[in-house]
């Protein structure tokens, strides 16, 4: 049982199977270059995060939130280098799922594939709901008011109704009171969120060429809008707003880790398009690294500008911070222009994720872990047709009814989990893969002494928290247990780095991503474990016996 659970696929076997599937299904169009991949990376990263969650992060961390962007970018940078190493050695679709199949074995590959479903699906549901909110604001700005019961969900509608009732405000125009009844049930749904997911899914279905052109156009518009924000906003900066720079100390900066990390997820979706790249071994590493650098610079500049225009304390509960700052300084037209661009930004994120998810399912289907229909390539459009349709339904239907206050923590956990395995996978790559011709190599820096030294510094700086965790063991909050687990994990990596001279970059990638994971609230961990348990039930019920290497 143990051997069969961790059975691995050789690199040669994966490449051979991908080539065979390509010939039998007509193949996928190899049209993506470095510029296209960088554009897709920016499309995924510069989205809902910069137009919405950056406000919450700025409220918690003040102007010092820029250091959280730097920390997150460095963490993602370690991961991007590891992704680039894998992309150069394993130039096929599947992203972290395929990479884990080579290094850790089948059951781990399934778990990571299941986690990526959580990342892409939940992430896109959140983005679709955010898109709907911005779109509704734009319509209201031009005098079009949709019925409230068509632009929200039941939970949010009930909360607004109860709040208005408690405050003695009029109730007749609220979604809860105006919604039509079907039997004893109020008909409340988020129609714009559903429609945009369907439209984006259609675009992803009809071809990567069309998707590429659309993504490039949306990225161009987004960058233009952000340039306007910086150029106009810099004249309204009051440097007094940057004092204090760390109003809630560094703990306040780290409090926004989920919001900021959610802004960064998506650059890994580039690796799912390996079979549609003209030269994946050269272009995928460059695409991921270039897009990450560009996006980090953009985030830091925007964070400095908006916290300079408006005091950080005013961002509490602000869902559209970029539009909000211009309304505050008496420039509502610029704010409206930003709101329009936010719709475009969210659309581009939806597109990239709706492209990435089907290609992961396609890889899992090729291995026999999912039904064969998921790996079917459309003869005309050269896309994984059935998988794309299923992805559309998986996102569109929950977006109709899901609570608009859905947190981003689940998506962040799924992503960080994938990042940890990718970074760890580089440390245990099979020797055979090292003989494959590749155009990118992860720089080797001997971590034998550096990693233990870093652990000693970390242990010294957090000594009070460590001693407190042990002295109050059994009475601590769950968050502190996660911290103690990280302490043991990091110590183990220090020992192995010293004994085996592990490469520094992947080790730092594992440790940084693991630390960001423990900062996510425990309640989200319980949901994550429940999701993983459901995935294992499906694996043992279907994929375990139908696996092609069984």
From TrEMBL:
Report if keyword Transmembrane is assigned: yes
Q: Which InterPro entries match?
A: AA/rel_permease1, CAT_C
- Please report the stretch or stretches of sequence annotated as the Cationic amino acid transporter C-terminal domain: 504-547
Chain ranges passing through the membrane: 37-59, 65-86, 107-131, 187-207, 219-238, 250-267, 288-312, 334-356, 381-401, 413-430, 442-461, 481-499, 504-520, 526-544
Keyword set includes Transport: yes
User: What subcellular compartments does it reside in?
Assistant: Membrane
Alphabetically, the GO molecular function entries are:
amino acid transmembrane transporter activity
**UniProt keyword annotations, A-Z:** Membrane, Transmembrane, Transmembrane helix, Transport
Q: What topology does it adopt in the membrane?
A: Multi-pass membrane protein
GO cellular component annotations of the record: membrane
Going by the entry's taxonomy, the superkingdom of the source organism is recorded as Bacteria
PANTHER family documented for this protein: CATIONIC AMINO ACID TRANSPORTER 4, INNER MEMBRANE TRANSPORTER YGJI-RELATED
* Full protein name: Amino acid transporter
